[in-house]
């Protein structure tokens, strides 16, 4: 498998104690967790480049994540699970949890109003399944902005998304190489807002492609569980 020449690596700490999914970036459980930054852009440089950070934690049963976005031109219209949330101000976590099939991946996309999309992909844009709404409802999501944001917020705005993703809901679709010290997954993190007045396509692990496309798992970076 072709790998990114400038490979991005993120070390995922194990959760100690309990966590409340409330979207609070400043709470104690996240304070000593390293953050990654989503800095690469695809296509034309947008008029405003949001600053986006993400953090992950794990335990035997779940992956926990939080995003903080320092943004402008924020909009959220999609209200339906598995709708076109990436058109809104949106953060995304793509990950390959099966070490025997590193190009198979799940994509979890959550708009700034907390509405998710979750797919399992075996061939990008050709062979994929949407997880069922009852399965996706088991993903706990907290969002700092209202569920609907319109008209667009043009001034500086900071928003957060936090999630708890149960590994059990993924097992119907793929074998899971369960997180434990030394286990590695391939993954990428994205920030987008394709139908706002400031369209942009930002990536954590650099994607070398002439047009914006997040569905290129050969450019995923690496998660290393600690």
Strand count, sense and barrel status of the largest sheet are:
14 strands, mixed
What characteristic shape results from the CA principal axes?
globular
Distance between the termini: 24 Å
Helix-and-strand structural type: mainly beta
Number of helices: 2
The portion of residues assigned to helices is under 10%
Give unreliable regions as ranges.
none
Number of strands: 16
**H/E series, N to C?**
EHEEEEEEEEEHEEEEEE
Quote the average pLDDT.
96
What's the Cα radius of gyration?
16 Å
Give the amount of beta strand, in percent.
Answer: 35-45%
Topology record:
Elements: E1 9-14, H1 28-31, E2 36-37, E3 40-41, E4 51-58, E5 62-71, E6 74-76, E7 90-96, E8 105-111, E9 116-123, E10 127-130, H2 133-136, E11 140-143, E12 149-153, E13 157-166, E14 184-192, E15 201-203, E16 221-225
Parallel strand pairs: 1-4, 1-16
Antiparallel strand pairs: 2-4, 3-15, 4-5, 5-13, 6-12, 7-8, 7-14, 8-9, 9-10, 11-13, 14-15, 14-16
Molecular structure report:
The chain is mainly beta and 226 residues long. It has two helices and 16 strands. It has helices at 28-31, 133-136, and strands at residues 9-14, 36-37, 40-41, 51-58, 62-71, 74-76, 90-96, 105-111, 116-123, 127-130, 140-143, 149-153, 157-166, 184-192, 201-203, 221-225. Strands 1, 2, 3, 4, 5, 7, 8, 9, 10, 11, 13, 14, 15 and 16 form a 14-stranded mixed β-sheet that branches. The protein has a two-stranded antiparallel sheet with strand order 6-12. A hairpin with an 8-residue loop joins strand 14 and strand 15. It is globular. The two termini are 24 Å apart. The relative contact order is 0.27.
């Amino acid at each position: 498998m072709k790998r990114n020449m400038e490979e991005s690596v993120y070390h995922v700490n194990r959760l100690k104690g309990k966590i409340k999914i409330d979207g609070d970036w400043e709470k104690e459980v996240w304070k000593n967790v390293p953050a990654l930054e989503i800095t690469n852009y695809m296509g034309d440089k947008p008029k405003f480049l949001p600053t986006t950070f993400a953090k992950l934690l794990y335990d035997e049963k779940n992956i926990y994540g939080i995003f903080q976005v320092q943004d402008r031109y924020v909009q959220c219209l999609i209200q339906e699970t598995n709708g076109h949330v990436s058109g809104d101000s949106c953060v995304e976590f793509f990950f390959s949890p099966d070490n025997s099939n590193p190009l198979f991946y799940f994509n979890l996309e959550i708009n700034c109003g907390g509405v998710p999309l979750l797919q399992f992909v075996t061939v990008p844009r050709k062979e994929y399944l949407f997880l069922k709404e009852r399965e996706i409802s088991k993903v706990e999501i907290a969002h700092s902005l209202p569920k609907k944001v319109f008209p667009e917020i043009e001034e500086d705005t900071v928003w957060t998304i936090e999630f708890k993703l149960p590994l059990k809901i993924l097992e119907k679709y793929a074998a899971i190489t369960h997180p434990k010290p030394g286990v590695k997954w391939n993954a990428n993190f994205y920030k987008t807002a394709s139908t706002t007045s400031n369209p942009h396509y930002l990536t954590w692990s650099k994607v070398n492609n002439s047009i914006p496309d997040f569905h290129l798992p050969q450019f995923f970076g690496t998660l290393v569980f600690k």
